[in-house]
Amino acid sequence: MKCVAIETRRDLYELLESRMRKTYEKLKEEQELEAGENLLKTYVIESNLDSIALLQKVDEFQIKIERTKDETLYIMKVQKDGKPHSTFYVDISDPRFWILHTLSRSERTDQFISKFVFAISNNLDFPWFDTYFLEDLVKNGIFRGFTLKFEEKIMDDEKIPVKSLSMRLWGEAASRILDVLRRDVNLKYSTALSGVGLKHIFDSNGDFVIEDITYNAKFTARGTTVDGHLFIVRKVIGEYKRKLKTIEQNSIKYEILDLGYKILGEPVAILFRKEIENLDKFLDGLLSSTRPFRLWGLKKQISKNYYKAVCVDLHTAHKLTIEVTPEWMRIYLPYGACGNTVLRLLTNIQQYYDSEAMLMVGGDEII
Amino acid sequence: MKLSNHTLLINMIIGLCKRTYGWPSTLKDLGYDVDWIEPKLINSEGRKVIPDLMLTSNKFLHSLVVECKGGKTLDKDQIDRLSKLTVDSVRDKASVYNARRLSLDVCFASFKDYLGHILQLLGESFPILVFSDTELKKHGKFKSRHLENALSNSISLGGSPPTGYVPFTDEDDIDVVAMYVIQELVSMALKSKKDDELKFDVDEVLSKIFPFWERTDEGAKKKLRNKVDSVIRQIILRKLKHRYLEKIKGRPTWVAKPLQAFKAECEKLLKDIKEQKRLEHFG
């Protein structure tokens, strides 16, 4: 790939626009891309770091951060074992949600981003798009298809009807097939979406963008307008931030005053459609410190069908308390802790236990 | 782990003022919010009273002062002070749109099993919120007709009371406090850099796990310090800090194994505490 010097957002825009058009034309004519011609991909990362300079080395990857003339735009060059691996253009204009554009190969960038974000307590996380959020995204455009990925990771039991399910359905019939799956008594708890595809037409001249969006905020774009791609990325992140804000507004906050103490906030709840038969085992899976939940915790039984656990989110080292019954889980998120923890938990419960689990805030509002 | 009855009652009543999934929101529905926990009030005789909770409904311009009693005993002096609370005691502390029209009820909250004992001491001088595993009933009469109406029939509770609003108080057993201490130590270790020295200062830990630490009275502070100190001493004695927590800090890569091993050791520690196998070590 020819190296283009990126000094400003305009330089980046031109690079991304030309690459997007070029790959689209190539795909239209030849149905495939040549080696080195990669689709534009954008990863969004939630950051709790004060500065991009605080990024740490991750395993075998070395990270070099280069400044541009724009103080909210950086170039992140990644090396693996001393050799060039991938390049990301990092937009930190929103200090909480970094937007990383790349034209490097998907296998490489996926591998790096996964290790980069999942390193323990590094203050980085993905945004976590739950199944209902992904379904709502499709309403913003023309539905093209979905990917479905489910793996039962908590209750490892012979009686489980579906241990894993993965499927990619593209085309007009996709949503009807999804409805059929969800009506099946054995499949209905195993239909978590891991990605959706949509097409958005921007004007009568026919400018459009085709986006594949994954549950952990990877956007792969084809089409005729990079503006369209950037619009969709920002719109989705805007929606996600509204959801996060609702959760964080409910976090538990204590105020200490001369007169006494105040308590604000209330727990949010995850409602299970698939009843938990063995709470002890469920919590062992949830609090095992391993992927996908990445929660450390100590559990205690309060009564026959009621447990409590004090937990630590291993991504952020934030604490949280949960109470669980076979039908629901209350989550007390302390003030200042990241609402992303709740959405990660929900998304992973959908992907690995009950795809119909839903989040409730304020006692009766499903978000 | 069992919360003390007192802490449980406080959580259950706060829960009634919030939208807590799986728990009724009877008081929230009447517009009540938790104005204050342990407010410092002055009664009509000019004496200080610190009840457990002051709840206020802006909708009905009514404050409800609640004293939680999780046992058989009652402090007669506290009962006397509470009986002399008037609306002027709370008027300046309530969040309402018209304090002139504010009215007040003072009540006790307890469990069904203790009602007989409490009535012997209180008589019918206060209304009482009576909790059982399955329902909430009132005993006596509230001045507020809205409260009277709402509580005229028993309220079904569903069996899963909230326990996380106030995590513990000085009245709770060491095993309850220990869980939060251990949780904080893990969080501290994860936040530490590789070269940082892991220091577990009792007061610092308490300031992070007990939300009201700053203004807690010295007697309660002493009780809590003893409990936290015992847990930290056990962590160090059992070499859990050295063997696990030191390995967790400042690690850029995944460290599931020491975390899992630490968890298993802590579960053992909690079990030992609970069974009082090593009674002499736990204060």
Give the radius of gyration of chain B: 22 Å
Oligomer: heterodimer
What's the number of helices of chain A?
A: 7
The largest β sheet of chain B comes out as: 7 strands, mixed
Low-confidence parts of chain A? none
Strands side by side in the biggest sheet of chain B: 1-4-5-6-7-8-9
What features would you describe in this structure?
The complex is a heterodimer of chains A (367) and B (283). Chain A is of the alpha+beta class and 367 residues long. Chain A has helices spanning 9-30, 106-118, 131-138, 174-183, 226-249, 279-286, 340-352; strands spanning 40-47, 61-67, 73-80, 83-91, 97-102, 124-125, 142-151, 164-170, 193-201, 208-214, 218-223, 253-256, 261-264, 268-271, 295-303, 306-313, 319-324, 328-332, 358-361, 365-366. In chain A, the strands form three sheets. In chain A, strands 1, 2, 3, 4, 5, 6, 7, 8, 9, 10 and 11 form an eleven-stranded antiparallel sheet that branches. In chain A, strands 15-16-17-18-14-19-20 form a seven-stranded antiparallel sheet, covered by helices on one side. In chain A, strands 12-13 form a two-stranded antiparallel sheet. In chain A, a hairpin with a 2-residue loop joins strand 3 and strand 4 (83-91). Chain B has 283 residues and is of the alpha+beta class. Chain B is built from eleven helices and nine strands. In chain B, the strands form two sheets. Chain B has a seven-stranded mixed sheet. Chain B starts with a helix and ends in an 8-residue tail after the last helix. Chains A and B meet through strand 13, strand 15, strand 16, strand 17 and strand 18 of A and strand 1, helix 7 and helix 11 of B.
SSE topology sketch:
The complex is a heterodimer of chains A (367) and B (283).
Chain A: H1 9-30, E1 40-47, E2 61-67, E3 73-80, E4 83-91, E5 97-102, H2 106-118, E6 124-125, H3 131-138, E7 142-151, E8 164-170, H4 174-183, E9 193-201, E10 208-214, E11 218-223, H5 226-249, E12 253-256, E13 261-264, E14 268-271, H6 279-286, E15 295-303, E16 306-313, E17 319-324, E18 328-332, H7 340-352, E19 358-361, E20 365-366
Antiparallel strand pairs in A: 1-5, 1-6, 1-11, 2-3, 3-4, 4-5, 7-8, 7-9, 9-10, 10-11, 12-13, 14-18, 14-19, 15-16, 16-17, 17-18, 19-20
Chain B: H1 5-16, H2 26-29, E1 32-37, E2 41-42, E3 48-49, E4 53-57, E5 62-68, H3 76-83, H4 87-90, E6 103-111, H5 115-122, E7 128-131, E8 135-139, H6 145-150, E9 155-156, H7 174-191, H8 202-209, H9 218-237, H10 240-248, H11 256-275
Parallel strand pairs in B: 5-6, 6-7
Antiparallel strand pairs in B: 1-4, 2-3, 4-5, 7-8, 8-9
